[in-house]
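LOG
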Amino acid sequence: MRVSLLDRSRTRSGESDAETIATTVERAVRAEELGFHRFWTAEHHAVPGIASAAPTVLLAAIGARTRSIRLGTGGIMVPNHNPLVIAEQALLLEALFPGRVDLGLGGSLGFTAPIRRALGRTVLHEGEYPADVEKIRRYLSGRAEITVRPGVEPPPVFLLAVQGGLTLAAELGLPVVIGGPVLRDASRIAAYFHDFRPSPTAPAPYLMVNVDIAVAETEERARDLLLPEAWAFADSREVGEFRALRPVEEVRRLLGETSRERKLRAVDDWMDSAIAGAPEQVADSLTGLLKRTGGSEVLANVSTYDRDEVRRTDEFLASLQTP
């Protein structure tokens, strides 16, 4: 099993954004020591509970502190940027950290209307995202009308399965990252493998499975660890932001006090999409997930209020890797 980590720089109540970013960097250093294959960071603009808006900048800091682990953008949201700038930043990272960079691309717009207006893209028209992805690939490969610098070998491109990314990845011959509801869509996953067109950079399909994971002594304790993120997800549908993670005990109290069935269902749905349990349970679940989806790699999101619990789950996931 190949396991990598996605760190969204989730803040905790009582913690500053700067402290969160520093913790992400330190976690990446530890991930390399534990032998993880990749460490990816994400892009979220003006979201109070997520401290990182610029994955390439954060990866530059992480790359300076590490030596071998692959560094990935999970992902750069293409509608928010000029394709030329995306290509330039990817090549600059590759020049700094040769052979270690993954360019993960997604097609999501900003989380709320004010954020979309601030970013200058409020609507994504049909065909825009695929066209921009192709522009990025042309810049990276030297097939555009201008020569992008620095002149280095381009990093591999991965697509996130949003805005038709799964279908587009098959058409372009690119690796893909799936998560959330897509994990349960067997027909779409099968179509990726069936319709995949080999490309010079990816002769065969490659699927990474992104899933939230918690490991503890018991399944009950592991599910408790997921509650802060599940509550933040459900809450975001009402308040339009991912708030900082709260302690498990506080979330339990909030769950007990709410009478909003819609929010409680959102918590349950989020929990059902995650993997939580004792070590053997989680290992079996991940093995089954990779077998069911045809995935080659787990991209784990480990997020709970207690950072010691995050470290323990990281250590266990690292132990599952095979050479």
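LOG (cont.) second protein
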Amino acid sequence: MNYVFQFGSVPREFDLLLQGAWLTIKLSAGAMFFGLILGIACAQAKNSRWPALRNIVQAYVELIRNTPFLVQLLLIYLGLPSIGIRLLPAEAALLAMIVNIGAYATEIVRAGIESVPRQHIEAGRALGLRPWQIFRFIVLIPALRAVFPALSSQFILIMLASSVVSVISAEELTAVTDMIVARNFRSFEFYLVATGMYLIMSFGFQAVFALIDRWLFAPWSKQT
């Protein structure tokens, strides 16, 4: 083996790697937040009394879950301009990630909603709670508590899948690493560092999810 490891060039490029990692974090956090909102809305729509709305949501979920994320990304970035909608690479990446995670979150949240006992909902109605109050306090919080581990795992997956957006020149961690390697040809060193940074980000998001679980759902567990 003639390859000579040279990690000395890593510190010189570390600022660029940090910038790429920061964009990865921002894209992932934005996709998690807005994707969860989309998933909650679609999960509620699947319980709608209007068949057309239920069919539209089901079609969206099936389309996203049965097509590659890369194709979805390219459709948004390269396909939308043909109908007059042009997005910057980071914007297209964020939209694609939201649409993708939203479909998976829909089914996860729907499973959580269905796990809420009907007696609790009837009790809320008997107490005179309004529909939005019943949904927020009796349905949504217990549902999210029940499926939070599954949601957390899906959120980590979308963070890791963000590396795919490098194909549209969104300058997240993988794209920045590719650019550096193309310049100095130190593939092993920089991809190893990038691997470590993804690992740190994964553990970081897991720690945040654990705090959210403790802060938001633990009090409800004690009440129930």
